[in-house]
Design goal:
It contains nine helices and 19 strands. The chain has 472 residues and is of the alpha/beta class. Strand 2 and strand 3 form a beta hairpin.
């Protein structure tokens, strides 16, 4: 049995979020709470702080298919299934069979539940993105809204003021620091220590765990504008002003994006700005026209800003929804950055017994999400695309696909990809990784987003939880 866990007498302390990985490295079983918890970099702490989660779903959801063939045809015509869907289904079925043949452990690790945990079937108590304490597994693969927030969750930052970006990041110098919230939102905040820092926010009585060697910028991505583009350049150049063994000033070895794509849930709640790339009303317009039509589109700004900040050979990972518009928008951005699509990571969502959470052939929902993985050309050049608008983007044929099987956690929480990404990057201590639209921090990374501290509050963590894997 291929596994990354270190075992002793049938029980092992968790040192990896990968419960199983095949020899070809294209199928793995990952535990989502472990992926976030271990990424905090609390080495030497026994036991490691463990992220609160929800009860794993034991059985798949009941089917909710259209009742007639005509209704199903109407839905399929409206939803425009991706041409990759059939390939994804086959890969997921093959991956699940391989795991069942070669792995005899549980499909997820024991989970630390919060003191106020409710049954995962409890309906949301608010239509706001910042909700009171609820625990709900990830049901809608296309949803971009978050739950599992509590009263101490920091409010969203709705305005971005580029003129307030300071000359450099604010350096935390003590393992316990207290600062007003206003001092934490106008510049990057860096923990340069090899140990975590308890960050106390004076005016909210909240304490946040800041991982070692991490940086965060608690702000929304600015809208598409010359000042917005300037603020991106200024932020990255002041945060990373020097050269490393792999990158120049302001350059990054990897960028992870989880954009707020248009979807039914986001449209219904209207709680945050979404990317115009998912708006069919803008179909056929160029990138410039789309930006003029929706100047609040955060992805348009990134598309226009990141070319010079990705080091040659660097990686870009972008989560997409099942809409072809989102996929095409991500691939167009890759081209603008000189990034070639090299892999697709398919997160297959399963219940606690290893069955897909919804029927793989289902009409309404998908049992998977996709992360596109691209690599910047070594010559740093831009890939020319003679197509404009929202039409199909020509893709490379030689694209490797990996299946990440994982039991969903709280609503909208994705697997932390640090362990998998580390295996693809050079082994250098000074690697620079930026996660945009982040909802938690990672040791050694920079994280940017208006919910960047969402799950860093101490109330979301258990200090005395010993998560161990029991193998038969």
């Amino acid at each position: 049995m291929a596994t990354d866990l270190e075992r002793s007498s049938g029980s092992s302390e968790i040192t990896s979020c990968l419960l199983f990985e095949n020899e070809a490295n294209h199928v793995c079983l990952l535990d989502i709470p472990a992926s976030v918890s271990l990424a905090q970099g609390h080495s030497g702490t026994s036991p490691n702080p463990w992220l609160h989660s929800c009860e794993p779903r034991q059985e798949p959801y009941a089917p909710t298919e259209p009742h007639t063939a005509k209704a199903k045809a109407n839905v399929q015509a409206r939803m425009a299934p991706s041409p990759q869907d059939a390939t994804y289904r086959d890969l997921i079925r093959t991956a699940l069979r391989e795991i069942r043949r070669n792995y005899d452990g549980d499909w997820c690790l024991p989970r630390a539940l919060p003191p106020t945990s409710e049954e995962h079937s409890q309906p949301p108590v608010s239509r706001q993105r910042e909700r009171k304490a609820t625990v709900e597994p990830d049901v809608n693969p296309d949803s971009g809204a978050g739950t599992f927030a509590t009263a101490a969750t920091l409010p969203r930052q709705t305005a971005f003021r580029p003129e307030r970006i300071h000359d450099g990041p604010f350096i935390l110098s003590s393992t316990s620091s207290t600062h007003p919230r206003t001092s934490l939102t106008d510049r990057p905040i860096t923990n340069p220590l090899q140990a975590p820092i308890d960050l106390h926010v004076a005016d909210s009585q909240a304490t946040y765990l800041i991982p070692p060697r991490s940086t965060f910028l608690w702000r929304s991505i600015p809208s598409y504008s010359p000042s917005g583009i300037s603020s991106i350049h200024t932020t990255l150049l002041t945060t990373f002003p020097t050269c490393t063994s792999t990158s120049g000033p302001g350059q990054l070895d990897a960028i992870i994006l989880d954009p707020p794509w248009r979807n039914r849930s986001a449209d219904r709640k209207r709680a945050y700005h979404t990317s115009s790339a998912g708006n069919s009303a803008l179909n056929g317009k160029t990138s410039s026209a789309r930006s003029q039509t929706s100047d609040l589109d955060p992805f348009a700004l990134l598309e226009a800003s990141l070319l010079e900040h990705i080091t040659p050979g660097g990686l870009v990972l972008c989560w997409i929804t099942h809409r072809k518009l989102a996929r095409n928008a991500a691939l167009r951005a890759f081209r603008a950055w000189g990034v070639e699509l090299v892999e697709e990571w398919i997160w297959a969502k399963v219940a606690a017994k290893g069955d897909p959470v919804v029927d793989l052939e289902g009409t309404w929902r998908r049992a998977w999400e996709v992360c596109l993985v691209g690599r910047k050309r070594e010559d740093g050049g831009v890939l020319v695309d003679d197509q404009e608008g929202e039409g199909e983007v020509t893709e490379m044929r030689d694209v490797k696909r990996r299946v990440i099987v994982a039991v969903p956690d709280v609503h909208s929480r994705k697997p932390c990809l640090k362990e998998m990404l580390d295996n693809m990057l050079p082994e250098h201590a000074d690697l620079r990784v930026l996660e945009v639209f982040a909802r938690h921090l990672v040791a050694g990374w920079m994280s940017w987003g208006d919910e960047v501290l969402k799950f860093q509050s101490k109330e979301h963590w258990t200090q005395g939880f010993e998560c161990r894997n029991i193998s038969g």
